[in-house]
Design a protein that fits this description.
By secondary structure, the chain is α+β, with helices and mostly antiparallel strands. The protein has 13 helices and 16 strands. Helix 4 packs across helix 6 and helix 4 packs across helix 7. The protein binds 4-amino-1,4-dioxobutan-2-aminium adenosine-5'-monophosphate (4AD). The site of 4-amino-1,4-dioxobutan-2-aminium adenosine-5'-monophosphate (4AD) has 22 residues, from strand 11, strand 15, strand 16 and helix 13.
């Protein structure tokens, strides 16, 4: 019993371990607390030292005040520390609380000369990109990652609130959903075994899209979605392409028109953006004030606007009338390039715009053919957004067995996709869906120019660091 009493006594006296974001609520004022984090600034003034310590729980660092006797030469910018002390009301306007330190323990030292970030310097995103293993220690990149995490939650809550079932579609697959041949093949890395068979008995690849698997599931759940990594062997160094990116994909059964699809896409964009703005006020503010100044007005304009819709044919007309000097010529039937997409967005007043009914031959085999000869278009839609261009691609899917069979036969794919034809044989319904590039979404909301700056570890051709 006396042992238990002693344990209880110790627990009552032991400092309260807090995340720094919790320390800012004044609820624990006057208590003995312990925080752990990394030093963001150190300043010595007469008999005191002042530190700012950050633990990633929020953008704000906690000010620690200590007597000079607690100074330690290892206490440098970037070092990892554990501080115990009393949480007090701060005399300074900038923050409500500060920690009066009784003990500072340097857990991990950091040589400020070799550390690539310098105290009080604002490094741009391009500079940070050189240090994929360390950039999360900076304000800008840690804000980005907190926003990314909240944005992920925002997409999940949008789908949950709207009755969608989440499906874990496979990363390894034997099909090329987009038919573009941009596949990474998957095989075990056995050396010197030239005559071995395929591991899966058939060629297998990293997925380029979970759509076909979602179509399977929409045949049972009607509304389904998936949110996971997607891979494309695109030999591109562009500001909006990665070899590994995250895609949010949704598929809806009993859906008969592109209008019904664009409504879901617009609602999803607005709802998730609003949630990110509301849940990440300080982090988003850091971007909109210091990293991409002025971008907030553009986001507000997107949220206020009702997204315009134009057909591909109208888009080609607008581009044809433009006096802009495009690198790629525009004719009916051409694929729209980034420069064209950006022009169309500008034409609509810098708000997101839907472009519908693309030439059938530009779209993959699954797209539903419109009955509109001689043009021959598909019921497909792209959502183009300011600064980025294409954010989402979607379509109604060809649900008619005879039409789909004929298309697959033309492409010599009827055997490969026999299971896909089964979906049309057994209880087929009109359906459609779309995919949104998650990194492009973050670029659009934050105004970030380069896609490599919105993903923790970017993979692109000739680069797979770490
Ligand atoms: O337009 P995509 O190719 O559509 C599909 O894959 C459909 N199967 C999706 C579906 O209907 N379920 O790709 C969808 C989005 C694009 O609009 C773009 O935002 C993003 O994925 N995307 C990329 N993002 C980064 N890097 C790349 N290499 C990308 N390729 C596509």
């Amino acid at each position: 019993r006396s042992f238990l009493l002693r344990v209880r006594h110790y627990c009552d006296k032991a400092p309260l371990k807090l995340r720094i974001s919790q320390a800012f609520s004044t609820a624990d004022l006057g208590k003995s607390v312990k925080i752990q984090g990394w030093v963001r600034s150190v300043r010595t003034q007469k008999a005191h030292i002042f530190l700012h310590v950050n633990d990633g729980s929020s953008l704000q660092s906690l000010q620690v005040v200590a007597g000079a006797e607690l100074n330690d030469q290892l206490l440098t910018f970037g070092s990892a520390v554990e501080v115990t002390g009393i949480l007090k009301k701060s005399p300074h306007q900038k923050q409500a609380v500060e920690l009066e330190a009784q003990r500072i323990h340097v857990i991990g030292e950091c040589d400020p000369v070799d550390f690539p970030f310098k105290i009080k310097e604002r490094h741009n995103l391009e500079y940070l990109r050189q240090f994929p293993h360390l950039r999360c220690r900076t304000n800008a990149f840690s804000s980005l990652l907190r926003i990314r995490s909240e944005a992920t939650a925002a997409f999940h809550s949008f789908f949950k609130d709207n009755g969608f079932v989440q499906i874990h579609t496979p990363v390894i697959t034997s099909n090329d959903c987009e038919g573009a041949g941009e596949l990474f093949q998957v095989e075990p890395s056995s050396v010197g075994d030239a005559h071995r068979e395929f591991f899966f008995s058939v060629p297998a690849f990293l997925t380029v899209s979970g759509q076909l698997h979602l179509e399977v599931m929409s045949g049972a759940f009607s509304r389904v979605y998936t949110f996971g990594p997607t891979f494309r062997a695109e030999n591109s160094q562009s500001r909006r392409h990665l070899a590994e990116f995250y895609m949010v994909e949704a598929e809806l059964g009993f859906l008969r028109s592109l209008n019904d699809l664009t409504k879901v896409m617009e609602d999803m964009f607005k709802s998730t953006t609003e949630q990110v703005l509301a849940r990440c006020v300080e982090d988003v503010d850091l971007f909109h004030r210091h990293v991409t100044p002025g971008h907030r007005a553009s986001v507000d304009a997107m949220l206020k606007s009702s997204f315009p819709v134009m057909s591909y044919s109208e888009a080609v007309e607008i581009l044809g009338r433009s006096t802009e000097n495009f690198t790629f010529p525009v004719d009916w039937g051409c694929d729209l390039k980034t420069e064209h997409e950006k022009h169309l967005v500008k034409h609509c007043g810098n708000v997101p715009v839907f472009v519908t009914d693309y030439p059938y031959r530009l779209k993959p085999f699954y797209a539903r053919a419109n009955q509109d000869p001689p043009q021959n278009t598909a019921a497909a839609v792209d959502l183009l957004v300011p600064g980025v261009g294409e954010l989402c691609g979607g379509s109604l899917r060809e649900e008619r067995l005879d039409v789909l069979t004929a298309h697959l036969e033309d492409a010599g794919l009827e055997d490969t996709y026999d299971w896909y034809l089964d979906l049309r044989r057994f209880g087929s319904v009109p359906h459609g869906g779309f995919g949104l590039g998650f990194e492009r979404f973050l670029q659009c909301v934050l105004g970030v120019d380069n896609i490599k700056d919105v993903i923790p570890f970017p993979r692109y051709s000739h680069s797979c660091l770490l």
